[in-house]
């Protein structure tokens, strides 16, 4: 019995060893086949994932803005007495302080703007006072407190036109020398 078992074990050992090697070869072949299929699928997915598109860049060049003064800022006639201020606002309201008397035609300055249709623009006013000087003399009065209507940004119309008014406050000295006083101030308009 022992011989039979020994003989049987001796005969079957090479067979089992050979069978195991074939099994290993088969497993390795199967692994290579699976790896190859996965690699091919990954490559195909990568190739399909690569795509492209084009974009468009645009720009609009706006028309050059122009500003034209169409009416002057008018403070009317003033009896100075002991002085004070006269304010003519861009919204057409008028007021005065002190003992002076203000009468006559008082109105804000007017400006026309042309540019690109429907564009938004904003007006910049002087930040410092400007002097009005007496014609034929050296005496001055100070103009400050500039304001505009519309206040802030506004939109040009469909033809690219718009307008705005500018007002301010004139300081009149006590016993201000009689005469006609004038001076200039600058405004600018830009796209917003």
The amount of beta strand, in percent, is 35-45%
Q: In CATH's first tier, which class of the largest domain applies?
A: Mainly Beta
* Main beta-sheet annotation: 8 strands, antiparallel
Tell me the distance between the termini. 109 Å
Instruction: Give the mean pLDDT.
Output: 85
Q: Which architecture of the largest domain per CATH?
A: Sandwich
Find the structural class using helix and strand composition. alpha+beta
Shape call:
elongated
Query: Number of helical runs?
Result: 1
What does this entry show, briefly?
This protein is α+β, with helices and mostly antiparallel strands and about 190 residues long.
Give your account of this protein's structure.
The chain folds into two domains: 1-51; 66-191, Immunoglobulin-like (Sandwich), CATH 2.60.40. 25% of the residues lie in helices and 39% in strands. It has one helix spanning 2-49; strands at 66-71, 74-79, 84-88, 94-98, 101-107, 109-114, 120-124, 130-134, 140-149, 154-155, 161-172, 181-182, 188-191. It is α+β, with helices and mostly antiparallel strands and 192 residues long. Strands 1, 3, 4, 6, 8, 9, 11 and 12 form an eight-stranded antiparallel sheet that branches. Strands 10-7-13 form a three-stranded antiparallel sheet, with no helix packed on it. The protein has a two-stranded antiparallel sheet with strand order 2-5. Mean pLDDT is 85; it is low at 1-13. The chain is elongated and about 90 Å long.
């Amino acid at each position: 019995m022992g011989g039979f078992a020994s003989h049987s074990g001796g005969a079957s050992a090479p067979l089992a060893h050979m069978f195991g090697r074939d099994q290993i070869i088969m497993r390795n072949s199967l692994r290579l086949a699976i790896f190859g299929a996965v690699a091919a699928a990954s490559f195909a997915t990568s190739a399909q994932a690569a795509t492209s598109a084009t974009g468009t860049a645009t720009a609009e060049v706006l028309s050059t803005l122009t500003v034209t003064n169409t009416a002057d800022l008018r403070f009317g006639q003033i009896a100075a007495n002991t002085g004070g201020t006269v304010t003519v606002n861009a919204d057409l309201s008028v007021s005065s302080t002190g003992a002076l008397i203000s009468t006559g035609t008082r109105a804000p300055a007017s400006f026309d703007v042309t540019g690109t249709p429907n564009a938004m623009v904003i007006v910049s006013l002087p930040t410092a006072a400007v002097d009005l000087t007496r014609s034929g003399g050296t005496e001055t009065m100070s103009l400050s407190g500039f304001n505009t209507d519309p206040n802030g940004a506004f939109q040009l119309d469909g033809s690219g036109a718009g307008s705005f008014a500018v007002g301010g406050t004139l300081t009149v000295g006590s016993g201000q020398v009689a005469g006609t006083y004038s001076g200039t101030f600058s405004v600018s308009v830009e796209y917003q």
